[in-house]
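Structure first, sequence second, as always.
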């Protein structure tokens, strides 16, 4: 392609990184599970952590383009990419967090995954400070998941749970089952 040509979207990459896999998510703001892409094991661990965290209402990738989301039919309640401006060495840059979402109390969640050593570098500290400020301005939370906070044991347990996950029945289904309407069972709605 010539230098004057229009750059196309690479449908196999997110923020320049190759997609390693997908996890089905029930916490994307959609009624049915949606696939969430990840580019590294740390990102996969972060996404599963958010999937099962009891305070997370919904989440999605913060670093995908609108075209990518549309192509793969990924629900994105917040604009994509979710851009955060920051300064590093006197120059303006844009940071795209791995995940953005909402907590149960309505507050903004910004989350990033990576190795602890890498997140201590000056440029990554500048990104983190900018993300903290954005979250703070909206009374939200910025969280960095590292090998210290996203343990392999927890991840193995979440993978086990996720592989066996079934949709939780709607409240009306639960009530009808407890009343014995499904399967002709005994009415359990009256005292035990």
């Amino acid at each position: 392609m010539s230098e004057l040509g229009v750059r196309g979207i690479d449908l196999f990459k997110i923020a320049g990184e190759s997609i390693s896999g997908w996890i089905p998510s029930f916490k994307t703001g959609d009624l049915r599970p949606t696939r969430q892409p990840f580019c590294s094991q740390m990102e996969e661990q972060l996404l599963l952590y958010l999937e099962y965290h009891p305070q997370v209402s919904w989440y999605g990738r913060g670093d995908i383009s609108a075209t990518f989301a549309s192509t793969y039919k990924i629900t994105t309640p917040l604009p994509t990419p979710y851009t955060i401006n920051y300064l590093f060495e006197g120059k303006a840059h844009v940071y795209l967090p791995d995940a953005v979402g909402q907590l149960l109390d309505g507050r903004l969640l910004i989350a990033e995954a990576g190795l602890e050593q890498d997140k201590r570098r000056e440029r990554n500290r500048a990104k983190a400070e900018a993300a903290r400020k954005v979250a703070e301005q909206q009374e939200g939370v910025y969280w960095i998941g590292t090998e210290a906070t996203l343990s392999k044991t927890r991840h193995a347990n979440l993978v086990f749970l996720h592989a066996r996950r079934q949709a939780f029945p709607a409240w009306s289904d639960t009530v009808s089952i407890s009343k014995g309407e499904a399967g002709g069972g005994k009415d359990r709605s009256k005292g035990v």
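Margin note: The first strand starts at residue 13 and ends at 14.
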